[in-house]
Amino acid sequence: MTKWVPPLGLRFSLPPLLLLAAVIAPVHAYGKLKVGFYRQSCPDAEAIVRRIVTMAVEDDLTVTAPLLRLHFHDCFVRGCDGSVLLNSTKNNIAERDAKPNLTLDAFNVIDAIKEKLEEKCPGTVSCADILAVAARDAVSLATKVVTKGEWSEGGNLYEVETGRRDGRVSSAKEAAKELPDSFDEIQKLIKRFKSKGLGLKDLVVLSGAHALGNSHCPSLEKRLRNFTAEDDMDPTLDKTYAATLKQQCTNADDNVTEVQMVPGRSTTFDSTYYRLVKENKGLFHSDEALLSNGATKMLVYGYMSSEKRFLKDFGVSMVNMGRADVLAGSEGEIRRTCAVLN
């Protein structure tokens, strides 16, 4: 995506998925989250987030996917605590510098939001909450039924619970271990999601986030060439689609070429992704893995035939994910700058 530069008045300067046990966020933490947490302490908080996200989307439609992805990658490592935003230091390599996170983007949009919120309500709104609200706003702005006013008067696909606090630890090693991988098989995906208190339905519906954005050739290279000793190409990948991808990705180390997750519709959030998965045209092996389990396959088919159901369930699952291992109350901190500890 083109790097978004905030307009005058918003410019800023800053210093340069495998746990197998089922870990569910404790009630005492996510029980403190609620819709409208900042209603008294910072009434304009969500409006400020929405305004800056809207400006970024108007400037570059492709910013929606990176904003959504930031929230996912945050929640799957140490829970939704804003740790993905921290810079590495001389003594610590942070999450954002882990290999799976090197293609993360839109940090500048989050920083612009934080700067404006600090001007309005100093030390009040956490970076973790900014990620959650910005993700909601990004996906809402990419959903036609929302932008046409057919979904809700507020223009939101779902409501966000807020009240998270920011974590003080960020580890690249943990990110490399815990983040879901594009080559994961179904059982590994199920275990990764279970570790965040998420079930089969959450797995399938949150995979629908792949309706937005682009990927890079290394994420699918193994599907195209030397998949296994027996198969040169991933047998779960449509051959005609594979030939098209091979023309786009001629170099296994090409981190520049971008491949659309949903060809021709990568900036529109809808249920087209599930039709592609059914046709063996999901970009990742992990997408096609959803067809290898009876329950997840049934959900894929269901969402393919009912976009309204998908959009409703997506909001529910985003709220579920947003509760993962959160910090609340007196835990953690409210960072003044998202990239560095107070």
UniProtKB/TrEMBL annotation:
<dbReference type="GO" id="GO:0006950">
    <property type="term" value="P:response to stress"/>
</dbReference>
<keyword id="KW-0325">Glycoprotein</keyword>
<dbReference type="InterPro" id="IPR033905">
    <property type="entry name" value="Secretory_peroxidase"/>
</dbReference>
<dbReference type="InterPro" id="IPR019794">
    <property type="entry name" value="Peroxidases_AS"/>
</dbReference>
<feature type="binding site">
    <location>
        <position position="83"/>
    </location>
    <ligand>
        <name>Ca(2+) 1</name>
    </ligand>
</feature>
<feature type="binding site">
    <location>
        <position position="180"/>
    </location>
    <ligand>
        <name>substrate</name>
    </ligand>
</feature>
<keyword id="KW-0106">Calcium</keyword>
<feature type="disulfide bond">
    <location>
        <begin position="75"/>
        <end position="80"/>
    </location>
</feature>
<feature type="active site" description="Proton acceptor">
    <location>
        <position position="73"/>
    </location>
</feature>
<dbReference type="InterPro" id="IPR002016">
    <property type="entry name" value="Haem_peroxidase"/>
</dbReference>
<dbReference type="GO" id="GO:0042744">
    <property type="term" value="P:hydrogen peroxide catabolic process"/>
</dbReference>
<dbReference type="InterPro" id="IPR010255">
    <property type="entry name" value="Haem_peroxidase_sf"/>
</dbReference>
<keyword id="KW-0560">Oxidoreductase</keyword>
<feature type="domain" description="Plant heme peroxidase family profile">
    <location>
        <begin position="32"/>
        <end position="342"/>
    </location>
</feature>
<keyword id="KW-0575">Peroxidase</keyword>
<keyword id="KW-0376">Hydrogen peroxide</keyword>
<feature type="binding site">
    <location>
        <position position="81"/>
    </location>
    <ligand>
        <name>Ca(2+) 1</name>
    </ligand>
</feature>
<dbReference type="GO" id="GO:0004601">
    <property type="term" value="F:peroxidase activity"/>
</dbReference>
<feature type="disulfide bond">
    <location>
        <begin position="127"/>
        <end position="338"/>
    </location>
</feature>
<dbReference type="InterPro" id="IPR019793">
    <property type="entry name" value="Peroxidases_heam-ligand_BS"/>
</dbReference>
<comment type="function">
    <text>Removal of H(2)O(2), oxidation of toxic reductants, biosynthesis and degradation of lignin, suberization, auxin catabolism, response to environmental stresses such as wounding, pathogen attack and oxidative stress. These functions might be dependent on each isozyme/isoform in each plant tissue.</text>
</comment>
<keyword id="KW-0408">Iron</keyword>
<dbReference type="GO" id="GO:0020037">
    <property type="term" value="F:heme binding"/>
</dbReference>
<feature type="binding site">
    <location>
        <position position="95"/>
    </location>
    <ligand>
        <name>Ca(2+) 1</name>
    </ligand>
</feature>
<keyword id="KW-0479">Metal-binding</keyword>
<feature type="binding site">
    <location>
        <position position="74"/>
    </location>
    <ligand>
        <name>Ca(2+) 1</name>
    </ligand>
</feature>
<feature type="binding site">
    <location>
        <position position="79"/>
    </location>
    <ligand>
        <name>Ca(2+) 1</name>
    </ligand>
</feature>
<protein>
    <recommendedName>
        <fullName>Peroxidase</fullName>
        <ecNumber>1.11.1.7</ecNumber>
    </recommendedName>
</protein>
<dbReference type="GO" id="GO:0006979">
    <property type="term" value="P:response to oxidative stress"/>
</dbReference>
<feature type="site" description="Transition state stabilizer">
    <location>
        <position position="69"/>
    </location>
</feature>
<dbReference type="InterPro" id="IPR000823">
    <property type="entry name" value="Peroxidase_pln"/>
</dbReference>
<comment type="similarity">
    <text>Belongs to the peroxidase family. Ascorbate peroxidase subfamily.</text>
</comment>
<dbReference type="GO" id="GO:0009505">
    <property type="term" value="C:plant-type cell wall"/>
</dbReference>
<feature type="binding site">
    <location>
        <position position="270"/>
    </location>
    <ligand>
        <name>Ca(2+) 2</name>
    </ligand>
</feature>
<keyword id="KW-1015">Disulfide bond</keyword>
<keyword id="KW-0873">Pyrrolidone carboxylic acid</keyword>
<feature type="disulfide bond">
    <location>
        <begin position="217"/>
        <end position="249"/>
    </location>
</feature>
<keyword id="KW-0349">Heme</keyword>
<feature type="disulfide bond">
    <location>
        <begin position="42"/>
        <end position="121"/>
    </location>
</feature>
<feature type="binding site">
    <location>
        <position position="77"/>
    </location>
    <ligand>
        <name>Ca(2+) 1</name>
    </ligand>
</feature>
<dbReference type="GO" id="GO:0140825">
    <property type="term" value="F:lactoperoxidase activity"/>
</dbReference>
<keyword id="KW-0964">Secreted</keyword>
